[in-house]
Design goal:
about 325 residues; alpha/beta; Rossmann fold; six-stranded mixed sheet; three-stranded antiparallel sheet; 10 helices; about 20% strand
Length: about 325
């Protein structure tokens, strides 16, 4: 699926770092393979069965694409962890950005649920997922958070203006309209958003059809993957598309797009659409799509919030390619 991880180590700590999505089609097929499969089961790859377990709860379900990736790379992953153990390292940080953050979360769940004897019982893991899309349903998220996040060993670092942590598509579990909602709207303690209410109603109305659409489209993706991997037999998809976030959430401030003044002399009206104008009539470059998601901006944002002296010493506050 075009996923790679790097392994770092010093005398006492190992780090497994996943990269995020790449420009290759197979990488985005992985993201779109968002139907859920049971959190415990078997995947058949070229007639070889691979058992997996991401949670104890029988109702827990996980993102098919990310789960498949973890299963595919599991042998390499275990080999690298054993190498760290042989070097006397048992404290291991698992991290990644975006797609890599989702893989970090599922890798943590996978490793913690391996049968005894496969890895050292002395291993202790900690997870830092940056800008991660969601990777499982409510039952998965609640078990994961109880076992790891609430104990201070799994964190989700997000910029609230970044759209990716709110993906894949999900719907509210609670009832569409409740007495508490109406009271909060009347008292003004909660903003009434009729558009959001309408969206929720549509989702509720067509929930079965929407789940069916996702499952059908993912069945097609499964056939596409067969061409790459030979043959894949996945568990039956779960009738659930309600993704929930995991990890102790730590928020970064919105990333400030720099004001890049542009000379508009001779520009066409279409070219002006890519610019913004301030109250003084000066034209500036418009913020690029997914600027709030860029990995370097997350790095800068972390330094700005928690290590300001290091942030202040940065030569580059932004990567030119991100502007």
């Amino acid at each position: 699926m075009d996923n790679k991880f790097e392994v770092y180590q010093n005398d006492s700590i190992g780090i497994i770092n996943y990269r995020g999505s790449t420009a290759k089609l197979i990488s985005w097929i992985e993201n779109c393979y968002s139907a859920m499969i049971p959190a415990s089961g078997s995947i058949l790859l070229n007639e070889q069965s691979f058992d997996y377990k991401f949670a104890e709860d029988a109702l827990a379900a996980v993102h098919a694409g990310y789960a498949l990736t973890v299963v595919i790379i599991s042998e390499d992953l275990i080999e690298q962890i054993n190498a760290l153990n042989k070097a006397g390292i048992h404290h291991i940080i698992i991290t990644g950005h975006s797609q890599g953050g989702a893989l970090a979360t599922l890798t943590r769940a996978y490793l913690e649920n391996l049968p005894a004897g496969i890895l050292s019982e002395h291993n202790r893991y900690k997870t830092y997922a940056f800008a991660q899309p969601m990777s499982g349903n409510k039952e998965f998220a609640e078990e994961y958070d109880t076992r790891f996040s609430h104990l201070g060993t799994s964190y989700s670092i997000v910029n609230p203006k970044d759209p990716v942590p709110y993906m894949p598509f999900n719907y509210e579990e609670e009832r569409l309209v409740t007495k508490e909602k109406v009271v909060s709207w009347l008292l003004g303690t909660k903003e009434f958003k009729p558009k959001k209410l309408g969206q929720d109603a549509m989702i509720r109305l067509f929930e079965g059809g929407l789940t069916g659409y996702i499952n059908n489209s993912n069945a097609l993706i499964n056939k596409i993957l067969d061409f790459k991997f030979g043959s894949i037999t996945m568990p039956e998809f779960v009738a659930d598309i309600n993704y929930y976030p995991t990890g102790d959430r730590k928020e970064l401030p919105k990333f400030d797009y720099p004001k890049i003044e542009v000379d508009v002399t001779g520009l066409t009206e279409a070219e002006l659409d890519d610019l913004v104008q301030d109250e003084n009539g000066t034209w500036y470059k418009k913020e690029t799509k997914f600027f709030q998601h860029k990995p370097y901006n997350y790095y800068v944002g972390v330094l700005k919030k928690w290590q300001y002296s290091s942030y202040d010493a940065l030569d580059l506050k932004y990567l030119p390619g991100d502007l």
